[in-house]
Amino acid sequence: MFNPANMNAGAYVYTVTGTAPCPNETATVTTTINTPPDPGVDGALTVCSTDGAVDLFAQLGGTPDAGGTWTAPGGGAFGATFTPGTDADGVYTYTVNGVAPCPSETATVTMTTNTPPDPGVDGAITLCSTDAAVSLFAPLGGTPDAGGAWSGPSPVVGGMFNPANMNAGAYVYTVTGTAPCPNETATVTVSVNTMPDAGIDGAIALCVTSPAIDLFVQLGGSPDPGGTWSGPSPVAGGMFNTSNMNAGIYTYTVVGTAPCPTATAIVDVNVVTNPDAGLPGSITLCATDGPADLFAQLNGTPDAGGNWTGPSPVVGGQYDPAGMNPGVYTYTITVPPPCVSVNSTVTVSEVQPPDAGIDDALTLCISSPATSLFGSLGGSPDVGGSWTGPNGLAHSGTFNPANDPAGDYTYTVTGTAPCPSASAVVTVSVVALPDAGLPGSITLCTTDGTADLFAQLNGTPDAGGNWTGPSPVVGGQYDPAGMNPGVHLHHHRSAAMRKREQHSNGERSTAARCRHRRRAHLVHKQPGHLALRVAWRKPGCWRILDRSQWPRAQRHFQPSERPSG
User: For 46-101, how does the pLDDT look when each residue is reduced to its tens digit (9 = 90+)?
Assistant: First the structure.
């Protein structure tokens, strides 16, 4: 055998020994070994669509033979150079032909192209310092990818720029690329122009003999300088001169830098011969009223332009019951000599609003005693109010389930003017008594099957009650095979009774001791309990009382105290 794996090529001589006198004879086989082709080891490469051309041969592993041919993913011939973004992704096959009898061999290069991220085109935005927050994404040009991250002079939350608390500057939007594509960025340059400040409106009262005054000084706040004045008379150098100018509204204007609007403030100039502060006035407010204009409460014909002082600071001439103290508020018109300053007063009184409490609900049993509705109101209602029933008629405020209709009962407390009256509602519900039925009995043989205790009750008992007795009762069934005979109690309570029990702190009537020292067993004093009363006189002796002999306060029978037999 010739094994190309471990034998050399060449001439191999075959000799056959002859039988004397015949000589030996030979024949020769010449072997040639051709090396199989080597296309290399499969490779793979991921590129970005913006990368340069790729030599596929260089992506093969191993030591591939040169001179092979390439085919594209569709099977067509390919030139060995892959252009990202142009050539299709997929498996490119490299084939090296073998010299017979060696077959051709192939290897593959799998190409994947990722698209680079698009952060858009740089943009810019100019805002006013008083503008609302805006999206930084919107100023980007092009078609930026969503989901990028922002960085800049101030932290960016939710992609929003807020001129109120963020710094202007270059904000960079970064979109993360999928390798080998790098991250890409775009920039939004934010400019913030300061809102112009014309100050706060002011007012001044002048005497006809007053010297010229600077209108700018009469403005409140911190107005920007450099604005212009306009008014009933031309203003030169920002000065008002009583000798040749008309009183009235003078407007100060500061032009804003776009997109900020122009800002204005006014100075109300009043020129008087003898200032008039008006006559004293008064006002009574409810503590819940809105602000009131103090100037409007003055009597007479007061001149404008004065100032207010009082128990609380006065802003804009308004009295607000929500945050100011009642009392005497003084209106003063201050003028320079030779005019004399004058003042007048407004006395402010406040009345507290009535409190009718908070709406609530009350549920009673038809047998419940008469109940005060006032105790069912929430909050801290004022006493002394009046009640009306569901029919709109006056009501005493004490609800009797026996003859009062259920519904909404309204409690009204009359307010002291100018405070309006207040009201609250108690919604009353009345539920019927439960019916546990009438006593019954059953006699069973100890070998009988289970019996339904509910079916043994007389009358028309309500379903849904519970059973207790000498033995635990499961599913309302009595089973002679495993339960003790005796008295079983059927309990049925209404929802109203259960609610009342929750608030009763578990109070139960105590058992009275009789002269025979009988032990009386506890039963709920609620209506709807049906049972026989069993009393113990002496060991081994039981006496069952019929219904006519039951006392009004019935007692529970205790199975643990049942005598044997």
Answer: 999 999 999 999 999 999 999 999 999 999 999 999 999 999 999 999 999 999 99
Cis-peptide, bond into residue 418, ω within 30° of zero? yes
Closest alpha carbon to 110 in 72, 63, 67: 72
Alpha-carbon gap, residue 32 to 181, rounded angstroms: 52
Written as six digits, the tokens of 165 are 């608390």
- Report yes or no: 395 and 418 within 8 Å, Cβ to Cβ: no
- pLDDT of 531 higher than 50: no
Copy the structure tokens of residue 467: 């059973």
Q: Rounded to 5 degrees, what angle do the CA atoms 287, 291, 292 make?
A: 105
∠ CA 306-310-315, rounded to 5°: 60
Q: For 348-398, write each residue's pLDDT tens digit.
A: 999 999 999 999 999 999 989 999 999 999 999 999 999 999 999 999 999
Query: Structure tokens of 244?
Result: 């040749």
- The answer to whether the CB of 373 falls within 8 A of the CB of 426 is yes
Question: What is the C-alpha radius of gyration for the chain, rounded to an integer number of angstroms?
Answer: 53
Q: What is the pTM of this model?
A: 0.44
Nearest to 332 by CA among 312, 310, 347: 310
What the block records as the tokens of 539 is: 């060991």
Which 3 state secondary structure label does DSSP give 499? Answer: helix
